[in-house]
Amino acid sequence: MEPLLDKLRTTLGAAHVLTGVDLSPFVVEGRTPTAAVFPVTVEEVAAVVQQAAAAGATVIPWGGGTAVGVGEPSSRAGVVLGLRRLDRLVEHEPGDLTVTAQAGLTLGALQAALRHGGQWLSLDPPEEARATVGGIVAANASGPRRHLYGTVRDLLIGLTVVTADGAIVHGGGKVVKNVAGYDLPKLFVGSYGTLGIVVEATFKLRPRPDDERLVAARFDRLEDGGAAVRALLASDLIPNAIELLDGAAAAALGLAGAPTLVVGFDGLAEQVQWQATELGALLGPLGGRDLGTLPPAAWPRLATLAREAFASPTAVMTFSVLPTHVADTIVQASASARKRGLASAWTAHAGVGAVTGALLADREAASVATALAEWRTIARAGGGHASLAFAPLAVKSQVPVWDDAGPAGRIMQRIKAQLDPDNVLNPGRFVAGI
After folding, report:
1. pLDDT digit string (tens) for 306-327?
2. CATH number of the CATH domain containing 284
3. What was the pLDDT predicted at 364?
4. Does one domain contain both 174 and 119?
5. Are strands 119-120 and 78-82 parallel, antiparallel or unpaired?
6. Could you say which of 35, 60, 82 is where a domain stops?
7. Are 379 and 321 in contact (CB under 8 A)?
8. What is the pLDDT of residues 251-270, one digit of tens each?
9. Which among 86, 326, 348, 422 could disulfide-bond with 104, CB atoms 3.0 to 4.6 Å apart, if both were Cys?
10. Residue-number span of the structural domain to which 100 is assigned
11. Do the beta carbons of residue 420 and residue 191 sit within 8 Å?
């Protein structure tokens, strides 16, 4: 690989090509890359991909590193392509409510820049200080506010990617009404860098709300919280977040360790106050009690409370089920863990059926794998599927990270073969081995 390293140093400068002990931050699942490189232009990204492909090396796109543990590690040693130097806010059009940013710009920095114009990008994945624009697109990352505002797929209107052969491809546009033809940018959303490297993205924005509030209510049983979610969804209220926490997750937030429903509202102050009052009237007859307002600092933690319930969780699994089955899924899966003497903690974006379960175990990998396999069976019974968001390699070797994608998996394999025939980009990391 020395000839490749020489070419990379010539292209980027020696200071931006890391090797040896400097690679420790980029070791994933015990596997060390050949090098980590940091281009500063889109053209340099394309050159790196071309040089790596010519040398038979894989390329591992790297944003803020918040999702590097998701999926299988790359099947071959390769070059980490860090995008942290591509961190410009390219264009902000307040009148059009659009923004274009480079992939290495962190979400926190982007939101701070937009805040001066009274606007925001309505995405709230965890760790906005580290999460980058490109990484958020690649992982289709989101948070509690997805209930009202959707995910990356709903907000992305344009994209620039570097393909596996080093071509720079633009898709979509910079105006909201640009909808002619196939929406190719959506193909790269949630592809975990296996189809192309996101280098620039354009999103539609929203005005910042005048007021925002999180209201929490305790329940004696998680099933009662689930019934409250169903009643809330059938009501006239318009929450921007509906989070269901089990006792362990609620305790991690500093609440009493009881099942808790957390509901967010935003808009004009009068509207927010009216909705919070109506929520109390709705939840009381359903067993909701001790209603209270949570501090703003609770917002960024809601999506990670299952993990935070344990100092070092053994495994984390995410479920996608029908919203009506969220509470039942959590109850069954937590009972399954208890039956094996394992502790678990649970959170859910309950209105959209996105559930996260964290497992704590001091037992051998086989016992953990058995519990996770049963969790997946429970998810399927709830009309959905489950994926391992985090687990040791010993567990991943026994439980597939990704659920069976069925016919969709075969379509994805064909797309991968067309866009990356030499398997250069993150090989083996994503669904169906792509």
Report:
1. 999 999 999 999 999 999 999 9
2. 3.30.70.3450
3. 73
4. yes
5. unpaired
6. 82
7. yes
8. 999 998 899 999 999 999 99
9. 86
10. 89-207
11. no
- Indicate the pairing of strand 206-207 with strand 17-18: unpaired
Q: Judge if 343 and 291 occupy the same domain.
A: no
pLDDT digits (tens, 9 = 90+) for 95-113: 999 999 999 999 999 999 9
Q: What is the pLDDT averaged over residues 410-421?
A: 95
Single pTM value for the model: 0.93
Helix orientation angle between 42-54 and 2-12, rounded to the nearest 10 degrees: 170
**Do 139 and 180 belong to one domain?**
yes
**118 alpha-carbon distance from chain centroid:** 25
CB 103 within 8 A of CB 198: yes
pLDDT at 182 (0 to 100): 61
Residue that has been written with the tokens 């009381």 in this structure: 284
First to last CA, the chain: 24
Pairing of strands 98-102, 156-162: unpaired
CA atoms of 77 and 68, how far apart (whole Å)? 15
pLDDT value, residue 326: 96
Residues 75 and 101 in one domain: no
pLDDT digits (tens, 9 = 90+) for 17-58: 999 999 999 998 888 999 999 999 999 999 999 999 999 999
- CA nearest neighbour of 314 among 256, 247, 367, 238: 367
Q: What is the pLDDT of residue 316?
A: 96
